[in-house]
Each structure stands twice: as C-alpha cells, then as structure tokens.
Amino acid sequence: MENSINNNFPIEIKRVESKTAEELMKYFTGEHTGFVRVGPKGYFMPHKYTQQASNIYNMEVRPSDIFVTSYPRSGTTWTQELVWMVANDLDYETSNAIPLTERYPFLEFSVFVHPVMMKRFQEENRDSERKIKLLEWVTQPATEQLALMTKRRFIKSHLPLSLLPPNLLDTAKVVYVARDPRDVAVSFYHLNRAMRTQGYIDDFKKYWKFFISDLHHWTPYFEHLKESWEKRHHPNLLFLFYEELSKDLPKAVRRVAEFLGKSFTNEQIVKLCEHLSIDNFKNNKSVNYDVMKELGILIADGQSFIRKGKAGGWRDYFDEEMEQEADKWMEKNLRDTDLRFPHLKQ
Length: 346
Prior knowledge:
globular; alpha/beta; 18 helices
C-alpha cells in the first residue's frame, strides 16, 4: 500500500495488487510498472500518477482559467474547440494556426508516458532535433508549462473534480461534458489501440469487461460523472451532454456563450456550427492530434483522432449479452442519482 505521497496530497493512494496489474499489463502494453487506485472512489491511474498527484492537486488556479473536463472520449475535443472559440470571440485565424494541443495543455498526460515508452519514442525520433524537442514539450508535466503561461489558460483534464485543485470551482470556470458510456467505451477502445502509451492489444469484448470492472484509466466511469453532476448548479460549472451537442449544436453554443458571458448573432452561431460540424472537424488538422502521429505516439493508421462522431454507434460492437450487461450496469450505477442521459427514455 502507498498512502498519500506526502502531506501536500491528502488523498490516499493504494497500489493495485501485483497479480491484477501484471494481468492488465499483458493487454495494455504501454504500462510497465503497474497501477494505483486513488481516493475513496478508487480512481484507477498508472503508477506514474504518484509523481504528479500533489503538483496537480496544489497547482495555482487563476480566475481567468477555463478547464474543459470529461471522462475520455466524451466529446472532449469538440467541446474544447467550442469553448475556445466562444471565449476568444470566434478567432478562426488563431484556431486554424495553432493546434488544440498547444492551446490546451493536457493536465495529466505526462503520467501516461512510462519511462520505457519515453526511451522508445526518443530512440525513434533521435534523427530529428526538432522532433526530440517536440517530444520533450508534449511529455513535460503540464503544471510546469501552465505555471509559465502569461495569457489566459485553457486546460484539458480527464481527472474527476476530487483530484483537481480543491479551490477550482470557486476560482475558475469548468465545462464538463458527459456521453453514453457505451459510445465512450467503443471510442476509447479504438484510441487505446492507437495510442502506444496505452497500447491495448485485445478485442473489444475484453476491453469492455475491464471498463465496467473499473480496471481502466480514470474509472470508475459513473463516479467521475456524478462528481460534476452534483455540482451542475454551481455558477462556475457548465454540465453538457455529448448527445445534446449532436442533436442541437446551436443551442449548446448559446449555453456556452451565456456561461462565458458572450453574445453572438445568429449568423455567427451558424458559421461556428459549420466550423464544428463533424465533417469539417475530422479534416481539421488543428484538432486531430497530428503532433502525436508525427512523434509515433499515436499510430497513423489512416484513422483521424476524431472518429465518426455519432451517437449510438456502440450498437455495431455489442452482442446481446453485452447489451444486457450494459443495461444492468447502467441501471445499478444510476440508482442513487438523478443523473440521466437525455437521449435515453428512462
């Protein structure tokens, strides 16, 4: 057992038992040390998280900061671009010129780059000084990058509220986006296969078992959502559903604009929705993690970081047994909360 790393991180951290960790590392080939569970809800993280937990929890939050948070593959990238565009008065020129990865440091990404993988990436990119520098920048702890930033900061994180700075909501703005977990699992499965920092090597059915058994990064899924759902009436938190963005994007844009104190004409909103349309988004180099492909962290298999972007695509992946299992799992986890996905008749 590893208790809190130091007094500056008051949340208990426990090491995942070695037998379980070794079994998981057969399937997730990017991890080489093991995993930990964090806090009373047991959030599942790679062992390297222990090095950054305190720095993230105690980072200075500025009143001008905007955080976009979510469980992975919930429409995070889409929401990031939407929020950035609204906050920056529809600055298309800068949006097209500067990749989203530069505009939004990913708070905890460095904890997913195991030293073994880092060495591998350095070796593969050693012939290019530019790529080596880029690799160092991408894998540098975001708290270090953020501390040096003088302009308004936009920050991406998949950590639940309880692992972020405790004064976050009383200081800065947070936009949280949630999505049907069945679609999340399918999308995250594809990303886990493509991202060598995870390096998943088995089928979706096994992946789904890990996901609903809370044996995967950032799980338990529903606890993650509930933390933000319970704070949805806080004036500094906006809770969005991916399915609402899919169904009525102009309405979502107006909600984000109101939250950030902005006002746009109907024409401006139509143009922004066109910019954010899934077809345009899939072909937008600025949001597609091209830097990760260039460095070999994301396998360039012809598939963009932005996938199909449709709601309900999970049906192509679930057999009847998995559907029933998902229904029971969702029902059980929604029993003690009024959280409901708007697209599901409940």
